[in-house]
Amino acid sequence: MASVALTTTDFAETVNRDGIVLVDFWAGWCGPCRAFAPVYEKASEQHPDIVFGKVDTEAEQALAAAAQIRSIPTLMAFRDGVLVFAQPGALPTAGLEELIRAVRDLDMDEVRAKTA
């Protein structure tokens, strides 16, 4: 599955669904964003069970502000509607794969108990 563009219209619906949703906040003028894009796309093809969303911070300024994006690229990971990771900076392939494994391995009952 290739990545999908997210907007204010479908962002909440997408990240609140069951399963894993990764969201890359990026901009076309951002060098590190452009460097991370092929890594992100390749991972989207290798993990068809995960939603790989992308938010263009230039086109979706209100959404970026609501998500408190201060630096790009910023990667967020949601699992079963819960934000479990948010960090600025481009990840190498191995780092992104490690993050995906960590999100898959989360005990969501434990996560929900901690956030309650």
From TrEMBL:
* Site, as annotated: Contributes to redox potential value: 31-32
- A GO molecular function for this record? protein-disulfide reductase activity
SUPFAM superfamilies given in the database record: Thioredoxin-like
Question: What residue stretch is flagged as signal peptide?
Answer: none
User: Could you state one GO cellular component term attached to this entry?
Assistant: cytosol
Electron transport as a keyword of this entry, yes or no, is yes
Q: Highest taxon of the source?
A: Bacteria
| Keywords for the protein's UniProt record, in alphabetical order | Disulfide bond, Electron transport, Redox-active center, Transport
Q: Which residues form the active site?
A: 30 (nucleophile), 33 (nucleophile)
Specify the Thioredoxin domain's residue ranges: 1-105
Q: Where is this site: Deprotonates C-terminal active site Cys?
A: 24
Q: Kindly indicate whether the keyword Electron transport belongs to this entry.
A: yes
- Cite the Gene3D superfamilies for this sequence: Glutaredoxin
Q: Return the CDD domains for the record.
A: TRX_family
Q: List the disulfide bonds.
A: 30-33
The UniProt entry's sequence similarity note says: Belongs to the thioredoxin family.
- What PANTHER family does this protein map onto? GEO12009P1, THIOREDOXIN 2
Name the NCBIfam families for this protein.
thioredoxin (TIGR01068)
Q: What is this protein called?
A: Thioredoxin
Give the taxonomic lineage as stored in the record: Bacteria, Bacillati, Actinomycetota, Actinomycetes, Micromonosporales
